[in-house]
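Tutorial handout. Part one gives the primary structure; part two gives the three-dimensional structure as tokens.
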Amino acid sequence: MELESGKGITRNFSSSGIYFETNRSFSVRQPIEFSIFLKHVDPDHAVRVKCLGKILRVEDNGSRMGVAVAIDSYTIE
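Part two.
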């Protein structure tokens, strides 16, 4: 996944939320904008899903932060 300023590794994803790990710091209730690239939908061209959401939970996972987000809206490109 791609964040406004950085990248993250998706661990769990649904139409209503996402959990990812990153080296960036976030705060609970902070708005967030990010993109997810779905490579298996079209093997020749990854589908980009742009999402807006709100951070629900932040966990310290050692060298990375775990971030749970509720997705408020998304567009498919």
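Part three, for discussion. The beta strands are 2-3, 6-7, 9-13, 17-22, 31-38, 47-60, 65-76. Residues 2-76 form one domain.
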